[in-house]
Structure formats: C-alpha cells, structure tokens
Amino acid sequence: MTIFTNKSEIQDYIFKQKAKGTTFGFVPTMGALHHGHLSLVKKALQENNICVVSIFVNPTQFDNAEDLKKYPRTLKSDVTLLETVSKNILVYAPSVEDIYEGHTIAEHFSFDGLEFEMEGRFRQGHFDGVGTIVKRLFEIVTPNNAYFGEKDFQQLVIIKKLVQKHKLPVTVKGCEIYREANGLAFSSRNTRLKPDYKKAAPFIFKTLVTAKEKFGTKSAKQVTKWVEKQFAKNKFLELEYFIIAEVTTLKTVKRKSKSKTYRAFVAAYADDIRLIDNIALN
Ligand code: PAF
What is the pLDDT of residues 51-65, one digit of tens each? Predict the structure, then answer.
C-alpha cells in the first residue's frame, strides 16, 4: 500500500491519475481505524476507482489538550487493516508541519449557526478546527466524492455547508452509523473504555431506540425528560445532552411538525471518555 506523508507528492500522484480518468473517493480519518471506517472505505471503493484515506490527528479541533494527547495513534495497524480491504487504497498520513506549515491554528468559519448547536455548545472552536482541516484535505486530495459517517451527524451537515459556501468541487456523502452487535456505535474512543464502562455503553443506543418509539406519540419535551431520567439512574454514564433537533438547521425542536425530519442526539461520558450517538426519528 502506498503511504504518502507529503502533500506535494500525493497531489502530484492524484493529478496524474485524474488526467487518465481515474476517480477518487476520500475518507478523512484521525486513525485508530475500526469497522465503521472500513464501511466508508468500501462504499468509496464501490463508487470510485481509488480510495484515499487520510490519517491525521488534527490538533486544531481538540478543545482539551489531554484528549489530544491520549487520542490513539496506530498508523501501523491502521495500514494493516486497510490492506485487508483492497489494493486500491492510498494512505495520506501527513505531519502537523505538512498540513499547518508552522501555523497550527484554525481558520474561522461561519456555518450559518450550525456550529453553535449541540457539540458547538460543549466543544469551543471544534468546528473551526474541523472546517480548517477538511477544507485543506479537500484541496490537497481533490476527491470526486468524500464519505463521512452519520455518527458525527452535525459534522456531516457542517461539511456539506462548508462545501456549499466555498464552492468546493466534491460531493459529500453521509453513510449510516456502523454498530457493534450490542448497538454501540463504532468509535476510535471505544478502545479506551474500561470493561465496566464498555459493558454499560450500549445503553446509549438502547435508550435512543426507545426514545424513537416514544417520539411517535409523545412531545419532544416529554421524550427528553424521559431520557434524562433514564441516564440519571445509570451510574456508569453521565449525560451531557440529549437533544431532539430538526436535521437541516440542527435547532432543538419546540413543536413537532409532520413536514419536518428529526433526529435525536446524545453526548455522554463513560468515565472520562466522551461518547456521541444519534438516531433518525421519522
Ligand atoms: O471525524 C473525524 O474523524 C474528524 O473530525 C475528521 C473529519 C477526520 C477531521 O479531522
């Protein structure tokens, strides 16, 4: 498998391949790859000739220095995992210097208010960091299509907004959340869960499924109260937020409307590990 660490080398390679008509799918990641990532890679390979996977722990999207330090870095095993999928994968694993050229700071973006909802309320500057890296990666890789998991649904909506506002020539595709058999959404953070917390974590999805059922007959406020009560009884999980929001504005629903589409979103701590998940409600 070819691993590029330098932007001009991968740019040069892709430019030459594109001139021959080769199409590129792109899966940006921060590494510690799991089956959720592999499902994105497989989708990219179905729809494009080559899949580029970037592996880069982006410092500007972390609001917590400890979280950045502890983020798993497993390039060797990531590459081994990708080799089990296909030969038509390129890895771009740049250094911080290759991306930020001595200025490791995020650009400031306006995403029409999407950045202030949910994750934006709890992770200061997070989406400026995500916008900065994704825009740079799109400019370097110049993919035809880029694939993002719906687990980070807010990120997906914001990246679509980034592409629209900056007229970036790429199609962004959202892909369904990939779950373990017990319902827990795959995440690079799951590997850091201590056994008791790992056992408790599927409660998040189980609660989302029941919340969805309840949303059929109850108001968003009633469902939210019920979910908060369930988490309060769980000694392993601390709820940060449960929000039912409309999928395009991400604004918390006040009054349900039949013509709108909603999702329920959760962020919860399992010990010091922050987990997020969400579910389509209608
Ligand atoms: O979802 C992630 O892993 C990251 O936020 C991304 C999109 C790779 C940007 O660093």
Answer: 999 999 999 999 999
pLDDT, the chain, mean: 97
Q: What tens digit of pLDDT does each residue of 200-213 get?
A: 999 999 999 999 99
| Residue 30 in contact with ligand 1 by CB distance below 6 A | yes
Give catalytic residue positions: 37
Domains of the chain, CATH where assigned: 2-175 (3.40.50.620), 188-280 (3.30.1300.10)
Please name the residue whose Cα sits nearest to atom 6 of ligand 1. 29
- Helix (H), strand (E) at residue 264: strand 262-270
**pTM (2 decimals)?**
0.97
Reading the block at residue 187, the tokens are 């995440």
DSSP per residue, 67-102? HHHHS---HHHHHHHHHTT-SSEEEE---HHHHHTT
Cα–Cα distance, 19 to 167 (Å, whole number): 22
